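hey so i finally got around to running the thing on that chain from the lab meeting. sorry it took forever, my laptop kept dying and i had to restart like 3 times. anyway pasting the input first so we r on the same page abt which one it is
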Amino acid sequence: MSIKRKRPAVLLLTLIMLLTLAACGGNGDSSEKQDSQGDSSQVASSEEMTDIEDVGYEGMMPVTADQLNNGTYDINVDSSSSMFNIEECSLTVADGKMSAVMTMGGTGYRYIVMKSAEEAAASDEKEYIYPEEDKEGRHTFTVDVESLDKAVKCAAFSDKKEKWYDRTLVFSASSLPLSAFKEGVLTTPAVLGIKDGEYKAEVSLSGGSGRAEVDSPAVIRQSGDSCIAVIRWSSPHYDYMIVDGEKYLPVNEEGNSEFEIPVLFFDRPMPVIADTTAMSEPHEIEYTLLFDSKSMK
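ok and heres what got predicted. didnt touch it at all, straight out
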């Protein structure tokens, strides 16, 4: 019996096919894997990102649609990047869901996706959120909002750079009016039924550099519908505080700065702003105060 030898050309062709299969992982699906991971060249590197800022505040407690009354409210949105500047935002609560219309300070983004930049690069174009123009020609993006007071990812595609940029957003529940919250959601002085008089309650401070402190327990005075806390700082260099959009001046002239401010609610971090003159120039710093209703005596 004779054995036929394979021709060199056939052997070479077979070798090329085997090498091609090996390069594709043996099953020809390398292109599918690359598509599922997205194009990493379209994701901006950390070196290409501007300074990233922390958003939100320590101890945030998420607020969901079922805790809010139906309606449309102006809301503040913290952004991790000054390049993703949200000038205005309108929050709509309806049928157990929330959506927001973000009005941007520029027109440099082609579209956004509420995911990380890497996830956005691998997303289907059906997930892209394109801008619309308002009457003033400003770009707006309409997005679904799962929760307030919770850091959420947002990837923005730059028209100029042709890349996805990671952003982190926090829709701030504290910027909503108290009437937006359903009864019983916030532990207000009225909910607690505090009688007129003077009390003391533990108060904890968060935010800033972490070096500032306030005296605890703090004196709390209840009179009619007014609930006032006496906040005494560990520094004499605070010249005003802002609570719920109102400015409050110190009530003392000597010693550490002391303020009388309203207690909007207990048992949830309450955002405040305090202006310090300890630096080379006055500087407003964002803090939160948490008043513990269980400790009140």
